[in-house]
Amino acid sequence: MSGPVLVIELAEAVPSASIQRLRGFLVGASTHFEEKRVGEYDLNIDAESLGITDTGGIDGRRPVMVSLMGPGVGDEAIFDAEHADEVDQQPLIGFTPTHAVDVIAFCNRPVDHVVTALLTAAIMDIIGGVANAELRVDQVSIVADLPGIVAKMTDPWPAAYGSAEFLRAWADQPGFRLLK
Predict the structure, then answer these.
(1) Could you tell me whether strands 40-46 and 159-162 are parallel, antiparallel, or unpaired per DSSP bridges?
(2) Collapsing DSSP states into helix, strand and coil, what is residue 132?
(3) 114: part of which helix (H) or strand (E)?
(4) What are phi and psi of 21, to 5 degrees?
(5) Residue 64 in contact with residue 104, Cβ under 8 Å?
(6) β-strands 159-162, 61-69 pairing
(7) Residue 87: which pLDDT band, with cuts at 50, 70 and 90?
């Protein structure tokens, strides 16, 4: 079963030094770490390493993939395909993304949603960027006044763009769930 996904939109390529810092963080936060290529990691993130103490009674080692994409790193075709149906993001976030990072959970339990949000926030602390979070219609009012919101949109689908602070505040809301 696939789980939630968040995308970090980036204005430029991630410098090699930042990729190395990201790699170091992921190695330290994981109980399993496999580097498929530079910028693509298959992980079992230790939920506790992100400050998550309530795993809902399940194993806190959560399977996740982190994948940097764009020209010069990753699969440029996947980046292009994922951004083909996006609205013009320039007026919303102040730049047109040239690169992105997908954070993909492989399970769909409540803890996987929190892990995805907090892992994405931790990655943003290292490499920057703006989180692109698609929303359910009923979540629009929940996120409206959270700190760290860069932009919101409702058309063609509800979404919020925000900082690491936004993701942490949203993940702290009762009943938090990402859109799959």
Answers:
(1) unpaired
(2) strand
(3) helix 110-127
(4) -65, -40
(5) yes
(6) unpaired
(7) confident
